[in-house]
């Protein structure tokens, strides 16, 4: 078992079981969220174990000589007998949690089983180490029906992310219409797929945009929205009434969005500080999870630091980053895209799920997963 002392969490996980950040010793744990369609596999921790008498995702400590993925494959085989060596392990993220008596750094992966693998293991009620195993519905898991260790709260937030996110057209796209705001509203209300996640990006926040967005949410109570932080703040302030439809609107907001510029402003003001000294972890955005735009390694490191600081301060987590541009886009043809390979290298640095953006179609969520991300987002091809 090797030890290493690190000042920051900037770099991708090493092979060491134990790492120190800000003088805290973390035990590295590989965690596998194993699923088939909407069925998710949970184990049950024995009362004698740390965090005992709770459900858990399959996993365990990363040995000194192992990478996180090697540990994942070994732990899943040891605990369940399922061989995931040929499955894609999609990195969700890395999170630190201080239980007081033990500090863990969870490296979390999502692993979809083939139908054949699921059929072979779906009736197994006991793991190879004698622990109970259960397949549970995703909706019940996300609703909090299973008592999991506290660190897993963030994992459940990550699991909510869909494979595709639509982004609204700018108002200027409808400038030929007699009334562009009405045309914007009608188009989006009519063309968003059922239950879709949509990043509402109006480009300006004023009373008209606020009212337009509220109308969209009233017309489409099935959709889930991500909004720029300024708009989230403005809207939530105006949603303080107890009217039922206003409360319903509030529930439709799944995340606030921060630009890379906003992130780097926070980062610059915390330059050289350890995570524990970042007492402002943007707490004014605390009530909603965050999704942040990143375009390079520096901003990803900043997002990692902010994510860690927010977890320490028990603020809602960063549930993803939009990493762009993957390919050439119609709106910014002059910008050189990253390309999938460079996108994958940057994606590996992130401590949270990565969403590809820029010149992509919904079908490309398959490529995003192959290159280490979880989802894709876009405008044109993401509407019906
Ligand atoms: N496996 C697993 N561990 C989790 C989850 N959430 C969470 O906080 N943990 C914590 C609990 C433990 O402190 C640590 C896992 O350590 P462990 O004791 O199970 O590791 P191990 O399987 O190598 O066990 P052992 O050899 O020490 O018995 O991570 C989870 O979903 N799955």
Automatic annotation (TrEMBL):
Keywords: DNA damage, DNA repair, DNA replication, Hydrolase, Magnesium, Metal-binding, Mutator protein. Its cofactor is Mg(2+). InterPro entries: Aldolase_TIM, MutT-like, MutY_C, NUDIX_hydrolase-like_dom_sf, NUDIX_hydrolase_CS, NUDIX_hydrolase_dom, ThiamineP_synth_sf. GO terms for biological process: DNA repair; DNA replication. It comes from the Bacteria. PROSITE patterns: NUDIX (PS51462), NUDIX_BOX (PS00893). GO terms for molecular function: 8-oxo-7,8-dihydrodeoxyguanosine triphosphate pyrophosphatase activity; 8-oxo-7,8-dihydroguanosine triphosphate pyrophosphatase activity; 8-oxo-dGDP phosphatase activity; 8-oxo-GDP phosphatase activity; metal ion binding. Signal peptide: none annotated. SUPFAM superfamilies: Nudix, Thiamin phosphate synthase. Coiled coil: none annotated. It is an enzyme of class 3 (hydrolase). Residues 25-161 form the Nudix hydrolase domain. It catalyses: 8-oxo-GTP + H2O = 8-oxo-GMP + diphosphate + H(+); 8-oxo-dGTP + H2O = 8-oxo-dGMP + diphosphate + H(+). Its EC number is 3.6.1.55. Belongs to the Nudix hydrolase family. This is 8-oxo-dGTP diphosphatase. It comes from Psychrobacter luti. The lineage of its organism: Bacteria, Pseudomonadati, Pseudomonadota, Gammaproteobacteria, Moraxellales.
């Amino acid at each position: 078992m090797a030890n290493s002392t690190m000042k920051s969490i900037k770099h991708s996980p090493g092979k060491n079981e134990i790492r120190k950040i800000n003088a805290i010793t973390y035990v590295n744990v590989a965690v596998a969220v194993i699923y088939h369609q909407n069925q998710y596999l949970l184990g049950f921790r024995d009362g004698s174990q740390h965090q005992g008498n709770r459900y858990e995702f399959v996993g365990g400590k990363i040995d000194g000589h192992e990478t996180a993925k090697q540990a994942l494959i070994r732990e899943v085989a040891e605990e369940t007998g399922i061989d995931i060596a040929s499955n894609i392990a999609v990195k969700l993220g890395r999170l630190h949690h201080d239980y007081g008596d033990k500090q863990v750094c969870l490296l979390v992966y999502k692993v979809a089983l083939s139908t054949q693998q699921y059929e072979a293991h779906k009736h197994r009620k006991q793991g190879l180490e004698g622990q109970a195993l259960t397949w549970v519905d995703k909706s019940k898991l996300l609703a909090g029906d299973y008592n999991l260790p506290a660190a897993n709260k963030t994992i459940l937030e990550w699991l909510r992310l869909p494979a595709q996110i639509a982004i609204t057209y700018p108002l200027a796209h409808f400038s030929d219409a007699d009334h562009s705001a009405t045309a914007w509203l009608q188009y989006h209300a009519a063309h968003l797929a059922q239950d879709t996640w949509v990043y509402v990006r109006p480009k300006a926040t004023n009373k008209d945009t606020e009212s337009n967005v509220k109308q969209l949410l009233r017309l489409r109570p099935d959709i889930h929205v991500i909004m720029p932080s300024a708009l989230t703040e403005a809207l939530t302030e105006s949603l303080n009434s107890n009217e039922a439809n206003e409360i319903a609107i509030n529930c439709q907001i799944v995340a606030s969005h921060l630009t890379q510029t906003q992130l780097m402003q926070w980062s610059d003001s915390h330059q050289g500080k350890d995570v524990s000294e970042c007492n402002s972890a943007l707490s004014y955005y605390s009530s909603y999870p965050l999704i942040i735009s990143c375009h390079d390694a520096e901003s990803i490191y900043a997002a990692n630091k902010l994510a860690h600081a927010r977890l320490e301060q028990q603020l809602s987590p960063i549930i993803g980053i939009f990493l762009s541009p993957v390919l050439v886009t119609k709106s910014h043809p002059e910008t050189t895209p990253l390309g999938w390979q460079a996108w994958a290298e940057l994606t590996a640095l992130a401590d949270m799920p990565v969403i590809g953006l820029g010149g992509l179609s919904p079908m490309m969520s398959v490529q995003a997963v192959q290159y280490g991300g979880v989802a894709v987002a876009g405008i044109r091809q993401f509407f019906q």
